[in-house]
């Protein structure tokens, strides 16, 4: 902190006796390394993201806003990556905004399911005569973020290297952007492997970006050395800053020694900078020794500085200019020797015996914390993260289960009640004491059947079921055919190209999709069985249902007459039975009210899930939802249980009273025949209501399944299209490589008679900013004798290894698109609405769940484990 304050507050220079060390010329260290930008292929973000938005959010203002935001995001990517960027802060601001936006939308869109592939080229690979440069394509937004952040660091290094280091503002700006670049590369080093889940290209490998981060930090420290010198800081301060910079450059050199993908000019620049910064530290420390009257130490340090400068001048003069620094050291050494020889006669110690120079670091890699841009504004600010959407979907599923359980138990109780009364011929038996007229309850049931369409409506619905089934089978078969055709093509090409066909086999990739499709096929098979059960039930009751549809006079004629039982009218047992039936009707009406109340309960867990995600970084959906459900439905559950217990008691009492009634009633064959027909009519009415409800639910089931299968078909179509695009690129590359090898063989054959082989092409120089350079020199660096901080030695430059594979290996398609949760078309009439993921509040009803005793339900569709964005 002391050194930082000293450098930034520009204190005056200090005189050292008869010697004042002015700032060394900046031209001597004006070569700075900058990093080239990665290049990306064009990607259309609009189509896949818009499909997700339209499939997830209902038409309206919210959907329109998100679609507009998708367009803006696509424009932002084109501005950031689709054109050359100036070495200016405004260009960097665009990159920062795009990176921040990627970080903001990553948790809000299901990118693994969007088939959105990003392709980037290696920044340091310049290609070859026979092939393009190394590139990698991945369906991963983490990969896109990594590459964009690499460009942030690269552009920051370029902006820093363009600064005018002769003024204070330029020095501050350069130091700022070098530290930003260092932080960007360091962040990639820590996150790239987890972001990609595969081997990256060499430019963004942890080893390479770690080296780049160290280089940027070294250059930032050097800029502070220049600033301290320009501000005429104390010699002790500048010496420590320069010695720290030398250490940084030495570390960068060691990390860079075996990075064959980096330009060959980087190593000698780092080695030269190491020597020069150490020489600067020795020069400044010699002035401090002079002040302390340690003239021998002064000469020893200047001699060491001279050796370091000579090393840089003789071996790295092509990359840096050390003449001014060398002249400064030589003049100081000549004066010091003259004074010591004639006046002081101080012993000159060995370099190894000198006290080490201290170190002081003023730089630190800027941590990557979003938002990086101060002007960032999230285009999708109102969209909730996918984790919240998934939790809301799961919570709605639990809510649906709770509602279905409550309503299912009540409707099951109603069915049980109706069945018991029908078996006892109640209330018809009490209404038929005369034995001649049609009981009023039977007439009401007859009118109800006629109002709902009678036999004709049921027959038409049953007739439509096979057509709906066939439509679903055709969609499913076409989906499998697309997968089969693409897989067959992939197998043929794999057999043809062998190892060059380096992508995931379609058979492995399509396993989740095929499992999902087989699951749909199993559901259809079970639905066929349910259809058959409905038809058999209809066949068993159609005769009595047809009788209920007849006019009253025909219905009365069809019911056998019996001897009158007028003696039972007004008896106590009849009155008790009627009172008990009235109480039972009241219990049933109470259930109807209670069912309406249960269905009307609404609540939204989004806010609670967002709060939990912000506070804890995770959502305990099960615990939060269970607590909310208990609060909302606890009292309803208790009332349902009380109602069921009350019905059970009443049914028991009615059965006892009916036994007494039957014992008092005159028994003969005519009366028994009449009662049997009345029972069948009552049962036919209940069966008609149930069959009609079941067939309507079956029709709805097939229609809902059609929408789901169409989305499944689109998903198959999307992945097959993505595989075809990938196949075309890989096929083009494989053919290009094959032709190149043939051409290379012919070229080498033609060149064999020549005596003198052609030298290899010289790689291009790095993107650096030389402000002074001279002639070329060898690159090896001997260690000066007695050096406490020896300069690094550049290794021989070897050929770069090819980075492969050049085309992506598809990571596989995400999990199933599940069918509506616990949907059962036989459950509870119109209450059963298919539950779809990502629906806004109030957009759909609750799915129905069958009671455990339900005998012939339609097949249960599997619970949704992970919401899927439906493709269109």
TrEMBL record:
Q: A GO CC term?
A: Flemming body
Q: Which InterPro entries does the protein's record reference?
A: ALIX_V_dom, BRO1_dom, BRO1_sf
**Superkingdom of the organism of origin:** Eukaryota
Region labeled Disordered — which residues? 752-807, 838-872
Tell me the Gene3D superfamilies matching this sequence.
Answer: alix/aip1 in complex with the ypdl late domain, alix/aip1 like domains
Q: Which GO terms describe its biological process?
A: mitotic cytokinesis
Ranges for the BRO1 domain?
31-421
Q: Name one Pfam family in it.
A: BRO1
Subcellular location(s) per record: Midbody, Midbody ring
| Biased composition regions of type Pro residues, renumbered to the chain | 756-768, 781-798, 848-865
| Entries under PANTHER family matching the protein | PCD6 INTERACTING PROTEIN-RELATED, PROGRAMMED CELL DEATH 6-INTERACTING PROTEIN
Q: What is this protein called?
A: Programmed cell death 6-interacting protein
Q: Which organism is it from?
A: Cyprinus carpio
């Amino acid at each position: 902190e002391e050194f930082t304050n000293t450098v930034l507050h520009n204190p005056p220079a200090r005189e050292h006796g008869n010697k004042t060390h002015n700032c060394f010329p900046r031209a001597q260290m004006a070569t700075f390394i900058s990093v080239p930008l990665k290049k990306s292929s064009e990607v259309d973000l609009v189509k896949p993201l818009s499909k997700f938005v339209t499939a997830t959010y209902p038409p309206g203002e919210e959907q329109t806003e998100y679609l507009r935001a998708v367009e803006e995001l696509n424009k932002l990517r084109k501005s950031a990556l689709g054109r050359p960027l100036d070495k200016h802060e405004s260009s960097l601001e665009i990159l920062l905004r795009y990176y921040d936006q990627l970080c903001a939308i990553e948790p809000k869109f299901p990118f693994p399911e969007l088939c959105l592939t990003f392709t980037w080229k290696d920044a340091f690979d310049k290609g070859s005569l026979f092939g393009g440069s190394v590139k990698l394509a991945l369906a991963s937004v983490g990969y896109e973020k990594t590459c964009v952040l690499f460009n942030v660091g690269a552009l920051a290094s370029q902006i820093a290297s363009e600064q005018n280091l002769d003024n204070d503002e330029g020095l501050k700006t350069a130091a700022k952007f070098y530290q930003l670049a260092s932080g960007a590369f360091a962040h990639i080093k820590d996150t790239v492997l987890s972001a990609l889940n595969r081997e990256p290209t060499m430019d963004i490998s942890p080893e390479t970006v770690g080296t780049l981060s160290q280089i940027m930090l070294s250059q930032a420290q050097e800029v502070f050395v220049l600033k301290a010198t320009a501000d005429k800081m104390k010699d002790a301060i500048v010496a420590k800053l320069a010695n720290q910079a030398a250490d940084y450059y030495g570390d960068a050199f060691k990390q860079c020694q075996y990075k064959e993908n980096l330009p060959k000019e980087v190593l000698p620049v780092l080695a030269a900078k190491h020597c020069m910064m150490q020489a600067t530290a020795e020069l400044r420390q010699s002035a401090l020794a002079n002040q302390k009257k340690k003239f021998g130490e002064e000469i020893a340090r200047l001699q060491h500085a001279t050796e370091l400068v000579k090393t840089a001048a003789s071996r790295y003069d092509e990359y840096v200019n050390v003449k001014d620094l060398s002249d400064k050291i030589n003049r100081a050494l000549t004066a010091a020797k003259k004074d010591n020889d004639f006046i002081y006669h101080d012993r000159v110690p060995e370099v190894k015996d000198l006290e080490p120079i201290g170190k002081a670091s003023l730089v630190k890699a800027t941590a990557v914390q979003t938002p990086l841009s101060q002007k960032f504004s999230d285009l999708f600010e109102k969209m909730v993260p996918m984790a919240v959407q998934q939790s809301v979907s799961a919570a709605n599923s639990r809510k649906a289960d709770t509602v279905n359980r409550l309503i299912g138990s009540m409707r099951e109780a109603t069915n049980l009640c109706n069945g018991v009364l029908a078996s006892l011929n109640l209330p018809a038996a009490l209404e038929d004491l005369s034995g001649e007229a049609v009981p009023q309850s039977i007439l009401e049931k007859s009118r109800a059947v006629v109002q709902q369409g009678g036999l004709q409506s049921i027959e038409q619905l049953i007739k439509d079921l096979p057509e709906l089934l066939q439509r679903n089978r055709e969609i499913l078969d076409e989906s499998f055919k697309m997968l089969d055709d693409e897989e067959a093509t992939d197998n043929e090409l794999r057999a043809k190209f062998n190892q060059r066909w380096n992508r995931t086999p379609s058979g492995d990739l399509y396993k989740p999709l095929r499992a999902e499709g087989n699951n749909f096929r199993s559901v259809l098979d079970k639905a066929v069985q349910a259809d058959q059960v409905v038809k058999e039930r209809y066949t068993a009751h159609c005769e009595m249902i047809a009788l209920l549809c007849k006019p009253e006079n025909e219905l009365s004629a069809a019911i056998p007459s019996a001897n009158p039982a007028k003696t039972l009218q007004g008896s106590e047992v009849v009155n008790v039975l009627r009172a008990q039936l009235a109480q039972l009707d009241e219990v049933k009406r109470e259930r109807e009210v209670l069912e309406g109340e249960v269905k009307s309960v609404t609540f939204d867990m989004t806010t609670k899930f967002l709060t939990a995600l912000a506070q804890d970084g995770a959502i305990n959906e099960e615990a939060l939802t269970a607590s909310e459900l208990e609060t909302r439905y606890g009292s309803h559950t208790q009332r349902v249980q009380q109602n069921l217990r009350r019905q059970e008691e009443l049914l028991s009492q009615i059965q006892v009273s009916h036994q007494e009634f039957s014992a008092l009633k005159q028994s003969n064959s005519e009366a028994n025949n009449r009662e049997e027909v009345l029972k069948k009519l009552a049962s036919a009415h209940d069966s008609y209501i149930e069959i009609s409800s079941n067939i309507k639910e079956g029709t709805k089931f097939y229609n809902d399944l059609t929408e789901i299968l169409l989305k499944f078909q689109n998903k198959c179509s999307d992945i097959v299209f993505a595989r075809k695009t990938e196949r075309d690129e890989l096929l083009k590359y494989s053919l290009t490589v094959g032709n190149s090898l043939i051409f290379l063989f012919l070229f080498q054959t033609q060149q064999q008679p020549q005596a003198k082989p052609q030298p290899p092409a010289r790689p291009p120089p790095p993107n650096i900013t030389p402000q002074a350079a001279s002639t070329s020199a060898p690159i090896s660096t001997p260690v000066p004798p007695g050096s406490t901080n020896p300069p690094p030695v550049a290794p021989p430059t070897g050929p770069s290894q090819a980075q492969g594979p050049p085309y992506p290996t598809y990571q596989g398609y995400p999990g199933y698109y599940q069918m509506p949760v616990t949907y059962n078309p036989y459950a509870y009439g119109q209450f059963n609405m298919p539950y779809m993921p990502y629906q806004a509040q109030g957009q759909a009803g609750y799915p129905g769940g069958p009671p455990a005793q339900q005998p012939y339900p339609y097949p249960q569709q599997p619970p949704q484990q992970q919401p899927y964005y439906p493709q269109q």
